[in-house]
Amino acid sequence: xxxxxxxxxxxxxxxxxxxxxxxxxxxxxxxxxxxxxxxxxxxxxxxxxxxxxxxxxxxxxxxxxxxxxxxxxxxxxxxxxxxxxxxxxxxxxxxxxxxxxxxxxxxxxxxxxxxxxxxxxxxxxxxxxxxxxxxxxxxxxxxxxxxxxxxxxxxxxxxxxxxxxxxxxxxxxxxxxxxxxxxxxxxxxxxxxxxxxxxxxxxxxxxxxxxxxxxxxxxxxxxxxxxxxxxxxxxxxxxxxxxxxxxxxxxxxxxxxxxxxxxxxxxxxxxxxxxxxxxxxxxxxxxxxxxxxxxxxxxxxxxxxxxxxxxxxxxxxxxxxxxxxxxxxxxxxxxxxxxxxxxxxxxxxxxxxxxxxxxxxxxxxxxxxxxxxxxxxxxxxxxxxxxxxxxxxxxxxxxxxxxxxxxxxxxxxxxxxxxxxxxxxxxxxxxxxxxxxxxxxxxxxxxxxxxxxxxxxxxxxxxxxxxxxxxxxxxxxxxxxxxxxxxxxxxxxxxxxxxxxxxxxxxxxxxxxxxxxxxxxxxxxxxxxxxxxxxxxxxxxxxxxxxxxxxx
Length: 552
Known about the structure:
Elements: E1 3-13, H1 17-28, E2 33-36, E3 54-56, H2 61-65, H3 72-83, H4 91-105, H5 108-114, E4 143-145, H6 149-166, E5 170-173, E6 176-184, E7 187-196, E8 211-224, H7 233-239, E9 252-253, H8 262-269, E10 274-275, E11 280-288, E12 298-302, E13 308-311, H9 327-334, E14 341-347, H10 348-354, E15 356-357, H11 364-367, H12 371-379, H13 385-393, E16 397-400, H14 403-412, H15 421-435, H16 443-451, H17 455-461, E17 476-488, E18 491-492, E19 499-501, E20 507-513, H18 535-551
Parallel strand pairs: 1-2, 1-8, 2-5, 8-20, 9-17
Antiparallel strand pairs: 3-4, 6-7, 7-8, 10-18, 11-12, 11-17, 12-15, 13-14, 14-17, 16-17, 19-20
Helix pairs in contact: 1-6, 1-18, 3-4
């Protein structure tokens, strides 16, 4: 088989959001650009295409219209309280955090608006914390949903790259899997690897790894934008930190199989330093997709604050581990229970108001920019269409009219033998007794009442407080929840230009990294925890930095 060879100014490995942004920046600077990816062309846009499209902005017009008073100072307090930077190698992540916060409070929104990106007017409140002013969480709502969700934010950059390909400024090469970075006298000068057999697999569906040939591409600058490890459970378990307990035996997968971490080792072999590999971000509200696209495909419930959260044995989770408050704190707690699942007990009234599903395909109204469908689905009575589909078809959902039947059905589920029915019953009854008074010692009830003072929550995200057993609230519902793999928070250490750094702290000539491959900047801009809405934004910012620097 003949080796395919090529030369380019800037080589970008990975066509997810950070790679597309880097390509646009290098192309705008007049450089020739080649983008390669191991997947078929149908996957242009990578993981970002599948996302809910949430973006972290500070003191935005959308926030001000909703009565939210935010500031760079408050957001910085939240970010650093959340991140918990505590290692010598966190110096560059700290610098990236400050630079990204300046970007989110400054030109980020205008930069996106110039490209035609718009935002849903109601700002969401993710990762609410609950552990004090300098503890984890967002002090105010900052989760801005892109109008068009993930595809809406990918579209302008993908269109620019496609236009560049049409007029010869960009070359897009699918089915190119990198196995080695070329190194000459300590400098990275390109990449070589396998040309995989053509595939017609639709977006997100696993494609073959049959090899049809070889390639070698030389470049003045090479940007690794290949994503993280969330699709590779073996790598996730190998990197799992002791502080989060033992890794689950059973996990769902929140990203396509191609998010395999293969470029981490390849980059390290070329001299790049990998840091903070034990920092990761996985969700605990995962449900098995009734209509899967990739293997072990899971969907995350984006919950409002009202559901009662029980561990596998039926014991209520401790303060402040309520739905939507502290993702990693909840994960760490649940890993101490000896079980891989937990439960929501809730009502139809809560589900129809508070259950949203993460993913562009689970939000056809927002993804399709369909105002009519949005009004029908978000403001009308009843769950959204995708949520109703899970109620009807999802293996993790139980719908019953009374508590005793519900608890019996929970016990019959796989793993349900761990449930102590008496304990679970007591938790539900005790919670319902507290709800009938304006006064309460139940912190979750106090918090959800407080949240309804925010217009956004009262309008579309928080149900009026009520007894779970109230017949007027509809049937009772139990949801079996699983750990859902998602993001790597560590990666290739980079300086603020996106240059990959070696073990000696000096840049590896010719090598750059962006997006999740770089821990979204610096090798870990989030520290130990993410504030949400910061993953796509990290791809945008790190891709921009690397693309501009590589072009220089």
